[in-house]
Amino acid sequence: MLEVKNIKVSVESKPILHGVSVDLKENEVMVLFGPNGSGKSTLIKAVMGFSGYNITSGSISFNGKELNSLSIDERVKLGIGIMYQHPPKIRGIRLRQLAGFLSKDKDEIENLAEKLSLKDHLDREINLGFSGGEIKRAELFQLILQKPRLFLLDEPESGVDIENVSIMGKVLSTHLKEYWAQALIITHTGYILDHIDGNKSCVMVDGHISCSGKPREIFKFIQENGYDKCRECKCPVSS
Ligand code: ADP
Ligand code: MG
Predict the structure, then answer these.
(1) Which residue has the CA at smallest separation from atom 14 of ligand 1?
(2) In whole angstroms, what is the distance from residue 44 CA to residue 151 CA?
(3) What is the model's pLDDT at position 234?
(4) Scanning 126, 139, 199, 231, which has its CA 20 to 30 A from the CA of 146?
């Protein structure tokens, strides 16, 4: 279970999050909406423990263990995994080699690569010459092989066409259900909602959570009214 309690986060001494609380139980999927610059990525980076994202008050805990002073490695070992928005190209290491570090089960690697249309990519150097969609699928491939208990996904659809969103959404949804894993997903387009049943969602505005409710209802409201109504907190679906 992820418990974010009233955290304030500053980056380079600039306060970005002004008291954010979120909780996520086993097997729950939370969708986070919000306009650009509202602090969504900052929240995910603070949970993952990226340097420079200073928690000045409040606490983050995962399965009862406080994370505030733990390194990224220690958080990964506790079962927290992130899908990078702009992963690097890694010359000299093939995707299959990296997959082999993450899982000893060769069938699992082959089957997952098949499902993510990455069979032909296993023997290529990681991300070298991959298209935008292929890079995202390869990221998801690596993340699923890590088997995190908590998936942190920051706009997994960005730069990905609808067909790829569909492939990724289906694979992720099946995995989350099968492994009883939880996820915090930031989405702008909402396309991922066609494939993943989020249990709950919230809207972040100006470093605060302004409202929460059911993902599809909140998304529909945002589509119809924009974020200004959230800013004024006149959202009828808020709970
Ligand atoms: P979102 O993901 O909602 O678009 P972010 O969390 O990326 O928003 O950013 C929130 C605010 O924090 C923005 O004003 C952004 O410029 C600032 N910010 C985030 N990371 C940094 C950083 N490393 N250095 C300086 N400012 C940052
Ligand atoms: Mg962001």
Answers:
(1) 37
(2) 10
(3) 58
(4) 199
In angstroms, the CA 231 to CA 207 distance is 11
* pLDDT of amino acid 136: 93
Does the CB atom of residue 45 touch ligand 1 within 6 A? Answer: no
Q: Alpha helix locations (H) across the chain?
A: 40-48, 72-78, 95-102, 106-115, 132-146, 162-179, 215-225, 228-232
**Residue 207, ligand 1, Cβ within 6 A:** no
Q: Is the CB of 16 within 6 Å of ligand 1?
A: yes
pLDDT at residue number 236: 58
Residues of the chain with pLDDT under 50: none
| CA 5 – CA 142 distance, rounded (Å) | 30
Q: Are 215 and 203 in contact (CB under 8 A)?
A: no
Enter the pTM of the model. Answer: 0.94
pLDDT at 54: 95
**127 closest CA partner among 117, 116, 139:** 139
